[in-house]
């Protein structure tokens, strides 16, 4: 089948599409950081299927593990324990912060977050949840309600017990203050939020250490310590959604929340966990796990093939010291993006992120402090990067943020090549 036919059939046969580019790219095969479309065009992949292909396309170790497991046994459901499931559980718990000792596997980030919310409610006996504006939690009804982007909410929210706190979004500070003289007012506002909009007792707060879909919004270092303390003071638990920030993405540490010096009570993960095989996990303390008395199953949760892939990803991260690579290559990426900002001071309003999770926020004219979101520039940049063979991501409430997240094992040369292509795409865009 040729690419035009795929696009036409996709258009005619599926619904709720959200594809990048004026003409969507039909991807067909990949190896490492490179991916090819059905017409044979090659791209350097700096988005990894939304921060999911953590150790490269068709990674040998992952592929071997998947093929071997698929030959042995590919499905049992959560009704039966398997070797791959317990091996991955053991490895994850060994890496998880502090008191997180029990895991429940599902098959997506949405389900991992759903599970976390249920566990917080069951363990605390409280129902109300705090989430952050600009946050993203997935596509179930609950996850849509936790998500704070109107674009991702097809219906009015049907879950009343979720309250959205102002995001720690320094570039567009909700309080019009500057860090650090702000005293992290956004975190302290949680006291007011709980006092005015809840019963005064909450089940918890669910937050991404760095907001992914929100455009890599990176909170001040002290934000989560203050926030977690306030939430706990009001009877709640702190849930770190590591779906995007987990598995070394932020560089140097396994989990994004470790960059902020906070131990969560519950942690959720998916995406990068298994290099693209569908897997989600929720990790909780013994105490929280013990509070769950109902029955529950997940047909696909903890699928043995996905768990085998997950274990291979962890082995790959450890053996190749990918936390260090993410930190070193991340610093190079950041320096490249800052240099780009100096070249395009009007359009690039903000450079932010950590490790291999870096973003550019495009605005109308930063030189005159006109920070009107500029999604049109992102659309043009996407066409320019596509033409030059570079895949990047998009985010932000207004779609005006460029998200750049190469694989954890990206090489120095690939990184430099991607930064160069991005620079050429910017030049091409501004020349038009
Ligand atoms: C932080 C975060 N949480 C949860 C989800 C939902 O994950 P999934 O799409 O696997 O259901 C996403 C997906 O983008 C996410 O970025």
- Regions with pLDDT < 50 over 5+ consecutive residues? none
Please bin the fraction of helical residues.
25-40%
Helix count? Answer: 13
What is the mean predicted local confidence, pLDDT? 97
Shape: globular
Distance between the termini: 35 Å
- What is the CATH class name of the largest domain? Alpha Beta
Strands across the major sheet, in which order?
A: 4-10-9-8-7-5-6
Describe this structure as you would to a colleague.
This protein folds into two domains: 165 residues, Aspartate Aminotransferase, domain 1, CATH 3.90.1150; 258 residues, Aspartate Aminotransferase, domain 2. Strand 15 and strand 16 form a beta hairpin. With 432 residues, it is α/β, with parallel strands linked by helices. 38% of the residues lie in helices and 18% in strands.
Protein traits:
seven-stranded mixed beta sheet, 16 strands, single chain, 432 residues, 2 domains, binds pyridoxal-5'-phosphate, globular, alpha/beta, five-stranded antiparallel beta sheet, Aspartate Aminotransferase, domain 2, Aspartate Aminotransferase, domain 1
Précis, in short:
With 432 residues, this protein is of the alpha/beta class. The longest helix is centred in the last third of the chain and has 22 residues, at 322-343.
Topology diagram in text:
Layout: H1 3-13, E1 27-31, E2 34-37, E3 42-45, H2 48-51, H3 60-72, H4 83-95, E4 100-106, H5 109-124, E5 129-132, H6 141-146, E6 162-165, H7 185-197, E7 204-207, H8 223-233, E8 237-241, E9 266-269, E10 280-285, H9 286-290, H10 304-319, H11 322-343, E11 348-354, E12 357-365, E13 370-373, H12 375-387, E14 390-391, E15 393-395, E16 401-404, H13 412-431
The chain binds pyridoxal-5'-phosphate (PLP).
